[in-house]
Write a structure and sequence with these properties.
There is one protein chain. By secondary structure, the protein is of the alpha/beta class. The chain has two domains: about 100 residues, Leucine Dehydrogenase, chain A, domain 1 (Rossmann fold, 3-Layer(aba) Sandwich); about 200 residues, Rossmann fold (3-Layer(aba) Sandwich). Helices cover about 45% and strands about 15% of the residues. Helix 1 packs across helix 11 and helix 2 packs across helix 3. The protein is globular, with a radius of gyration of 19 Å. Bound molecules: nicotinamide-adenine-dinucleotide. Nicotinamide-adenine-dinucleotide binds next to helix 4 and helix 5.
């Protein structure tokens, strides 16, 4: 199937494939829209089962970035990169080669961290390109974006709690966090400090031990996350976790997490809605990281990042209210709002 025929193509402005034989790098950079500004989104390093799977992932992720940036109110377009490699193949030279490719796009795409890529990796990328963020920054903002992402997810969760249970705190609330990597770990800290009862699951035992050694969390097996009796399910691992198989089995009344592309297909938003499960659209509540990256570009202090991240609470509530008023799924309303912002700026 050609890239143009992919269901996820959705009018992408550019899809750039490049390989570097010296380092073994294979990368795809997708730019969905530059209507609001240069395309900005993280770089994911993942051992994909096929190049087709990598292409689908990068297309869905870059479109998500267009929508995320639009609703976060930041003047950036949507783009994303994937590196097709196993974690153990990641080397400084591979990241430098990736930086060279980003540079060759002349600023149409700006990169940062995503799954499998760290702040340290971004320093190798920065040796070859100016178009990289998520770096250590003397102005206060910058660095690892995941604490800000977790803060936004936490606020989106609070908006869902308010809307569904008319409750302003986490007393008596049980939350299951799937994936305790950068975002999930920081989210657990916030939830724990707020008095929630926190359950965690991860395929990586080291990540589980880290969170358990610091916080009073309960570990549940990876394959029983669906049937756990909790109020909130928080996907913070990989995408497509909300699908035909999982939605009918979900026990939680709220889904609010940091993972990108949680809905396997657009119709799964409607499926959640029909089941009466309140879904906080992923790209709305996980925008804290990109807000931090944009603030790094603008050299804004960390207080202004926090103020902008705090708006995620209001945006999420606004989406729930509009969805209820119109009898629509929350993700559909969020998509419409984001598309209206992008359309208003497209010439
Ligand atoms: P990460 O790699 O640090 O953490 C992901 C964790 O999920 C890992 O611990 C991994 O072992 C675990 N995991 C993978 N598959 C799993 C499974 N099937 N069941 C349970 N655990 C599983 O990545 P991250 O930066 O924390 O990002 C997590 C998600 O949030 C991704 O979807 C990412 O795109 C999204 N996101 C991240 C940021 C950010 O600031 N890092 C911003 C926006 C969105």
């Amino acid at each position: 199937m050609s890239v143009f025929d992919s269901p996820s193509f959705d009018g992408h402005e550019l899809v750039h494939f490049e390989a570097d034989s010296g380092t073994g790098l294979r990368t795809i950079i997708a730019i969905h829209s530059t209507a609001l500004g240069p395309a900005c989104g993280g770089c994911r390093l993942w051992n994909y089962q096929s190049s087709h799977a990598a292409l689908e992932d990068v297309l869905r992720l870059s479109r998500g970035m267009s929508y995320k940036n639009a609703l976060a109110g930041i003047p950036l377009g949507g783009g994303k990169a994937v590196i097709l490699a196993a974690a153990e193949k990641k080397t400084p030279d591979l990241m430098r080669a990736f930086g060279g490719i980003v540079e060759s796009l002349d600023g149409r795409y700006i990169t940062a961290e995503d799954v499998g890529v760290t702040v340290e990796d971004m320093q190798f990328v920065a040796e070859k390109t100016r178009y990289v963020h998520g770096l250590p920054n003397e102005h206060g903002a910058g660095g690892d974006p995941s604490p800000y992402t977790a803060q936004g997810v936490y606020l989106g969760m609070k908006a869902a709690l308010k809307y569904r249970f008319n409750q302003s705190d986490f007393e008596g609330i049980k939350v299951l966090v799937q994936g305790v990597g950068s975002v999930g770990y920081n989210l657990c800290k916030l939830l724990h400090a707020s008095g929630a009862r926190v359950f965690v699951t991860d395929i990586n035992d080291c990540k589980l031990q880290r969170v358990r050694s610091e916080l009073a969390v309960e570990i549940v097996p990876v394959d029983t996350f669906l049937t756990q009796e909790v109020d909130i399910f928080s996907p913070c691992a990989m995408g497509a976790v909300l699908n035909d198989a999982t939605i009918p089995a979900l026990k939680a009344q709220i889904v609010a997490g940091g993972a990108n592309n949680q809905l396997a297909k657009p119709e799964h938003g409607e499926m959640l809605h029909e089941r009466g499960i309140l879904y906080a659209p992923d790209y709305v509540i996980n925008a804290g990281g990109i807000i931090n990256i944009w603030s790094e570009m603008e050299q804004l202090p960390s207080e202004s990042v926090c103020a902008r991240v705090a708006r995620i609470y209001d945006t999420t509530l606004q989406i729930f209210e509009a969805a209820d008023a119109r009898g629509l799924a929350s993700d559909q309303v969020a998509d419409e709002m984001a598309e209206a912002v992008i359309r208003s700026k497209a010439s």
